[in-house]
Amino acid sequence: MTPTPPVPRLGRTALLLVCLAALGAGPVRPAAAQTPDTVREMRLAADGTTVEIEVESTLEFAVRAEIAVLRIGKEEFTLSRSPADGSLHRLIFLVPAASFRALPEGASMQVQYGRGEGRDPRRLGSLNKAALKAGPR
Known about the structure:
By secondary structure, the protein is mostly beta strands. Helices cover 12% and strands 36% of the residues.
């Protein structure tokens, strides 16, 4: 009879990550392994009533039962769409131009799943209104 090879033992951290993933906690990213999440582009729509804020991540924005939310300061924006090429690494949020103008310069930005405290926050840095481009690509 051939002996059964030993089963590798998981460390406590690895076991915790596996358990959290199994419970539906979404992608778990240890603090030391944070990925660069960025605002790729901000542009004013042709009609001038909407600002499109395109965000990008090295991790996919997975389709979930919770809505993707762009938080800028204390404000939350939930209207979004995928880019034309269907990439899961980017989302385009549609923010009313009047709401965008009212946002404070330098406000913190993040994408999360769900309103309020949300889950799986992806920090995008600070709002730089000077980066706003006029018109569609």
